[in-house]
Amino acid sequence: MLSALDLARRIDAGTLTPSAVIELCDQAIVAREAAVGAFTTLDLAGARRRAADDALKGAPLHGLPVGFKDIIDTADLPTEYGSPIYAGNRPRADAALVAMTMRAGGVMLGKTVTTELAHLQPGKTRNPHNPAHTPGGSSSGSAAAVAAGMLPVAFGTQTGGSVIRPAAFCGVAGFKPSYKLLPMVGVKCFSWHLDTAGTFAAGVADVAFATAAVTGRDLRVDRGKPVAPRIALTRTHLWPEASEAMKGAVETAARLAAAAGAHVSEVVLPPILEDAWRAQATIQDYEAFRALAFEYDRHRDRIAAITRKLLDHAATITAEDYDAARRTTKRARQALADLMAGADVMLTPSAPGAAPDLGSTGSAMFNRLWTLMGAPCVNVPGLFDEARLPLGVQIVGRFGRDRAALEAALFVEAAIADRP
Amino acid sequence: MLSALDLARRIDAGTLTPSAVIELCDQAIVAREAAVGAFTTLDLAGARRRAADDALKGAPLHGLPVGFKDIIDTADLPTEYGSPIYAGNRPRADAALVAMTMRAGGVMLGKTVTTELAHLQPGKTRNPHNPAHTPGGSSSGSAAAVAAGMLPVAFGTQTGGSVIRPAAFCGVAGFKPSYKLLPMVGVKCFSWHLDTAGTFAAGVADVAFATAAVTGRDLRVDRGKPVAPRIALTRTHLWPEASEAMKGAVETAARLAAAAGAHVSEVVLPPILEDAWRAQATIQDYEAFRALAFEYDRHRDRIAAITRKLLDHAATITAEDYDAARRTTKRARQALADLMAGADVMLTPSAPGAAPDLGSTGSAMFNRLWTLMGAPCVNVPGLFDEARLPLGVQIVGRFGRDRAALEAALFVEAAIADRP
Q1: Dist CA A211 CA A216 (whole Å)
Q2: Which of A399, A409, B109, B371 suits A177 as a labelling partner, its CA being 20 to 30 A distant?
Q3: In angstroms, rounded to a whole number, what is the distance separating the alpha carbons of residues A191 and A160?
Q4: Are B103 and A297 within 8 A, CB to CB?
Q5: Which residues contact B324 (CB under 8 A, 6 or more apart)?
Q6: Across the 420 residues of chain B, what is the mean pLDDT of every consecutive 10-residue run?
Q7: What is the full DSSP assignment across A304-327?
Q8: Among the options B83, B140, B142, B162, which is catalytic?
Q9: B330: which residues sit within 8 A by CB, 6+ positions away?
């Protein structure tokens, strides 16, 4: 994989150029893209032109190449939302996230595969670790492109678990920041209270570097030794749904972090958070029926069956159900804040296990609650199952404490990497 | 003016058809549009075709014609955001609000004039009460079209005061619901924590009817006598900025409401709300610099000077300033909730006075705080200054208590209308 931070340091040191990085990506693309299928559109010619621009010198992103999930609008490349309804769609403007990335000195290399409308119907992408397995969804291409070394940085979005889950399945770092830390302007909406943009890169320090560069926020975690965090191991009511390998991965991560000096305790979530987990689906579906009203009412036959079925069901959710789910959310956020007063972060599975076979994109069950809470989440890579498929563990931070979440994730990542 | 509720009742009674309503609008358009300039695009032919559809029978909006501010995406009509950057722009999809309006049996009659990118650069619209005066902004055309009897219902948006202010200047009812009650999917973004869609119609019962129809929520206030509300007269720290006529209007409204049976008290806002008023500008501008990054970075010369100047300034706002403004907002919301425990609504000016001359769109100073608070606001029409220009008074409700805000506004509206 290409470490964004390592590349940036080499560019800073004058031993590498943005143009040379494009060629590194191109080599990986030549070698891997046919089997992985991470991109909907590649613009190597445009990227080569932009990477040669002297104005990139000293820019926060150093001229590094970046990919965007194809539900993120780009004025210079097609944006089809993974849906035949949008075949050939070419937005008039870049999404805010794209324009901010360019502003920060990023070079757009291409658009990455999304599931249809960022829901569950898979695209063409395969897991770089085993092509018989899903890369996860809905940000399938962004996770797979980074995992295959074809891009150092890619952006995606999460409504249920669409950043953390594919990052876990592909064995890369995935960072879903606090709700609205990355703007959603110009990103195809599924659920406006949930949709959250996030960052994929090789390791935790790399996602922190890229997110810091794009936002101008103090999120970098590569300057100095991370402080040992207070970690609350959180099994949640879904623990029985996790595979034995995943249970082992979370417990291994906890043990290694403790051995490295972290204070590890265990918390049991109060019942209101299980209620909130259920409320996430109500909010998501109620909003999707409205956010996708145009597609559902005018192009119903061109929506995949799995998405159509969701929207058929969503039509029956009442405003009262939705308002009750919103009230539950508010109470759950308060309960979570109280619960986390004694810890910096929680440690919990990123997914029920390793990537399942192609055909589904896996389950977001271990992600939905944290998306609803607006909490920063980081997939920490480094562990594998017996079949050498990645197993991701998840660090969940407190709302607005994104840097603390990244620091703790870096600590756990290092503890895993340095294990005897 | 055309009362949406009255038209709907006549359609229900079989004494009017949706097609006949289109002709009523057309007559007003022929008589007034040349002088008022409320529309960017009119689609009378399309509206006539859709109004003849039998499927509209029994639909919540009864086949009534509706206009949409031209920052709201429409697949069937151009959407130019009031900006030359978007000349000829034709979105691929309808905004959620448009699709929901169609779903509810609305008939799109046209797009209404917005200021450039919903900021301060005026469009062509003039005040229907006096063409030398502004209709207000940024939802200029929506307010003016309703005031001139050219439409019974129109939608707009408010980031500072862009629903309540033009409604006040044009002498119509304007309803800015609680934040996100109407979805913003497919609406050009200026500031994602502030932008709020709202409804224009002849009277308070009409905005309630139309918003209820589109959302499927229990917001109608036309079924039974309104209960006398507890009203807190709120002068705010901006009271010295209000004209004598406006001060008189607010005090008259309070007196008439009290005479009609309302319990009227007076509240002084705690200092945190003045801090929040200032924080609104920080949040708005910080987000606008990102939401409009594409326009600013790629088409700077095609942005009006007043907007360019705002964005030049916005570039200097730091993430720390922004985060502090967000924290202030959170504390202010709590303080406001505490303050309003003893009242149903507040009564305060909708604007500093009547509509100023053309050249500006007036000031949003009396609106910005309430937009930031996410509180439902209603402009109550019915009072005028000595020059016969409308003076609007504003009812501000508690977040999520939209129906109570509308009921109180209806009560005040009736008290004004029934004055001796």
Answers
A1: 8
A2: B371
A3: 10
A4: yes
A5: B279, B282
A6: 98 98 98 98 98 95 98 98 98 98 98 98 98 98 98 98 98 98 98 98 98 98 91 98 98 98 97 98 98 98 98 98 98 97 97 97 98 98 98 98 98 95
A7: -HHHHHHHHHHTT--HHHHHHHHH
A8: B162
A9: none
Q: Which CATH class is domain B230-268+342-417?
A: alpha beta
Query: Residue A131 carries which side chain, given as an amino acid letter?
Result: P
Q: Give me the residue label for tokens 């008074």.
A: B393
Query: Kindly report the CA angle at B211 between B209 and B213, in degrees rounded to 5?
Result: 65
HSE-up (13 A, CA, CB side) for residue B179: 20
pTM over 0.95: yes
Measure the CA–CA gap between B12 and B411, rounded to whole angstroms. Answer: 25
Q: How many CB pairs under 8 A join A and B?
A: 89
In this complex, do A293 and B96 lie within 8 Å of one another by their Cβ atoms? yes
Amino acid at B115: T
Q: Which two tokens stand for residue B41?
A: 């695009």
| Chain segment A242-282, per-residue pLDDT in tens | 999 999 999 999 999 999 999 999 999 999 999 999 999 99
Q: Which of A183, A193, A217 sits opposite B319 (nearest CB)?
A: A217
Please give the positions of A annotated as active site: 69, 138, 162
CATH of A4-215, one of 3.60.20.30, 3.40.50.970, 3.40.50.10490, 3.90.1300.10: 3.90.1300.10
Here the tokens at position B39 are 């529309």
CB-based contact A216 B287, cutoff 8 Å? no
Q: How far apart are CA A172 and CA A399, in angstroms?
A: 23
Neighbours of B320 (CB within 10 A): 10
Q: Report the half-sphere exposure of B362 (CA within 13 A, side-chain side).
A: 38
Retrieve residue A366's tokens.
């271990």
Q: Which residue intervals of B367-401 are DSSP H helices?
A: 368-373
Q: How does the average pLDDT of chain A come out, rounded? A: 98
Given a contact cutoff of 8 angstroms between Cβ atoms, the answer to whether A66 and A108 are in contact is: yes
